[in-house]
Amino acid sequence: MSSEGPVKLDATAKRIIELLQEDGRASYAAIAKAVGLSEAAARARVQKLLDSEIMQVVAVTDPTQVGFTRQAMIGIRTEGDPLQVGDRLAEVAEVDYVVTTAGSFDLLVEVVCEDDPHLLDVIRRVRELEGVVSSETFVYLKLNKQHYNWGTR
Amino acid sequence: MSSEGPVKLDATAKRIIELLQEDGRASYAAIAKAVGLSEAAARARVQKLLDSEIMQVVAVTDPTQVGFTRQAMIGIRTEGDPLQVGDRLAEVAEVDYVVTTAGSFDLLVEVVCEDDPHLLDVIRRVRELEGVVSSETFVYLKLNKQHYNWGTR
DNA sequence: GTTAATTCTGCGATTACCGCACATTCTTTG
DNA sequence: CAAAGAATGTGCGGTAATCGCAGAATTAAC
What we know:
The structure is a homodimer of 153-residue chains.
Chain A: H1 11-22, H2 28-35, H3 39-51, E1 55-61, E2 70-78, H4 82-90, E3 95-102, E4 107-113, H5 116-128, E5 132-146
Antiparallel strand pairs in A: 2-4, 2-5, 3-4
Helix pairs in contact in A: 2-3
The first copy, chain A, binds a DNA duplex (30 and 30 nucleotides) through residues 27-30, 37-41, 43-45.
């Protein structure tokens, strides 16, 4: 769905991203002052970053706090093209995160479920997908840390 | 650092969260209209959700797009209290995500690094932590899907 | 049933946002 | 290298959103 080009970001773009990683609702005026641009220019740059899907500004929550009692990571071994299997997994609604990896799993998939029967159903559906050879599920017991302000380089 | 109580969220709070999961920069006026409150009340509720750390509004990016070429998930087996080890891991700057799990790993840890030597150094530091018995690293090759609008229940 | 605390509404006063015309800088390209 | 074209930035006026606060309404506690 997204065709990536390794976009080049200048120092101003990176500082804007870092500011919004700290506070996604920062005003354009505040951003402009922080990076030394006019308000209109700052606004244009934020819009560009959003439109190009380099960055998105969203609310993030601990799923367990908003009614999803079962979360899990599923390690998956595939046959055929892992990227294609990854695309198929990405279509599953309960899946919020898919990465292709090197190691004893080909894909790591995070799923968000309401309860145990729901998780069971998701695992069943995942294992039935074409190209999925085996899977191993890690049920989440506690979310210890979750942050997004890793900055830029 | 965060003392969790399973906070009870009413329907309005959940709808506000869902709206901001779609667009973290939605105006208070728009939120108010959507949930049927005055602008001031909507603003107060958003502030409360932010202050109580139930929700945070932030910019999220694909790390590879902003200069971090090496990302990985590290599966960790521990001895002693996994939660304590998790807390220690959470203090590592390059670690952005820590979950305690049930399964063949006790903890899953996501790390964001600039390059291979950086990743190597992080893995070394992680393995030296007290309580870490063994670790297995899954280097990310591609981020297939990443989304945050899983809604509420 | 009264009190206290929380939450909501309804405003002005202030600030931010948006769109647009024009200036500036950076890239092609002949 | 000069001119054309594309980005990117500035300034500003009109509109809309935000903020702070006083008082009403609702909810919880006793």
